Amino acid sequence: MILLDTHIWVNWILLGRDALKPAIALAIEEADRVVISAISCFEVALLVKGRKLELPLSTGEWIKEALEQSGVECLPITCIISQRSVKLTDIHRDPADRIIIATALEYGAQLASYDTEFPSYPELSGFLLTGLST
Fold it and tell me: What total number of domains does the chain contain?
């Protein structure tokens, strides 16, 4: 299972395979299951609202299509994931990123991300795909 960070998911859906580092694109193609955290839907809506992202459809329609057409599953934010996110090493304070990390850890998923802070999380050792290896 591979969990896509929000920016990976958006770029893959909007721009295609070539928008990703080859190792990440290959990992997505070879994964038996590709997922996102529900918090990524929040982040997309927030980016659209703040005019930092423009989508070809309304936010709700785009999210629905992006999930259905790609076969990506949306994992819920559970109480366990919420609690685990708070217990992570204090690297940075972005709650959405912490939820994404906790989701990957809770499901034992590889986390695909270009976030430069993520490699600092000792909890992600063996779970992080940055596209720099593989």
Answer: 1
